[in-house]
Amino acid sequence: MLMLRALAYFFQEAITSLWRSRLVNSISIGTIAVSLFVLGAFLTVAGNLGTVVSRWTEKIQIIVYLEDGIEDRVRDSLENRLREDAAVESIELVDREEALARFQTLFRDLSSLPEDLGENPFPASLEVNLKPTHQSPGEVERLAADFTSVPGVQEIQYDLLWIERLATGVRLLRGVGAFLGGILVLAGIFTISNVIRLTVYAREDELDIMRLVGATRAYVKGPFVVEGMIQGGLGGLVAAGLLWLALRWLARDLASSELLGRTAFALPNEITVALVVGGMVVGVVGSLLSLRRVRV
Fold it and tell me: What is the arrangement of strands in the sheet containing 153-158, beginning at the earlier edge strand?
């Protein structure tokens, strides 16, 4: 019962103090919100891109572009040779009309390009899917080299190398986000620490009276710790709201993208919880650092 009464007092005093110095506290909350927004944005975008990369790497393809006017027997012979390769799982023939339709679906703004050129510029191709056990870079390069000079083959392209580079970029994005977010979080801790210190100085006479009547150190410090926690939590909520709005705006253009596999750039619940809880932790740490430097 005494614990609940003390907590109620802590929250009441903290809310009163926040409202009394609402302008300064708004700046503190805004600093935390910006810090957590940057960190959350990097982690969320990197996480969604990581999902896209993982999906792309589930099926590594080799695209075998065919020469114009290739004879059916030559194409059939090429398909048979590909099917006999131990690394090949399946083959899909994409004729010129289907290739054009895919291009117009992916790049709607350029859908009139074939009409402007006066012809269909896309060649027919064979999309070769590899078995999961034969998707290493060496295996992909070996298969491409074996069929580059086969009659009827105009060009061979494969996406494994650039997917691996994209995956490396995603990891780098996470690292940069964590680094920048960490710096900004430290700035948030510093801001809260200074705000709490100013609050302590403003209430110094009141705190002296509390100590004279026998208030314990925990009872005196409690409201300031709760105040920092509330500031941090509000900053986390603001950051989560801004991030949700930003991702919703971003999803308007990317949600229907066939290139990204209709990936929804949504804010994961765990990121939202992490931002709020992380903000509260930042607030508590800033408060405790401030209270160590002043006489309470």
Answer: 88-94, 125-130, 61-66, 153-158
H/E segment holding residue 163: helix 160-202
Q: Can you say whether the dihedral through the CA atoms of 126, 127, 133, 138 is positive or negative?
A: positive
Q: How far apart, in whole angstroms, are the C-alpha atoms of residue 136 and residue 232?
A: 46
Number of domains in the chain: 2
Whether residue 78 is found in the same domain as residue 221? no
For 293, other C-beta atoms within 10 Å of its C-beta total 11
Please tell me whether residue 264 adopts helix, strand or coil conformation. coil
SS3 112: coil
**Same-domain pairing of 121 and 223:** no
Domain boundary among 108, 139, 158: 158
Residues 44 and 178 in one domain: yes
Contact 235, 31 (CB under 8 A): yes
pLDDT (tens digit per residue) in 97-134: 888 888 777 777 776 766 767 777 788 888 888 887 77
If asked whether residues 176 and 286 sit together in one domain, one would say yes
Pull the structure tokens for residue 38: 């940057």
What is the full DSSP assignment across 249-287?
HHHHHHTT-TTTTS------HHHHHHHHHHHHHHHHHHH
Phi, psi of 218 (to 5 degrees): -65, -40
Determine if the pTM surpasses 0.70: no
Which residues span the domain enclosing 285? 9-55+164-293
Contact predicate 275/75, CB 8 Å: no
The verdict on 192 and 260 lying in the same domain is: yes
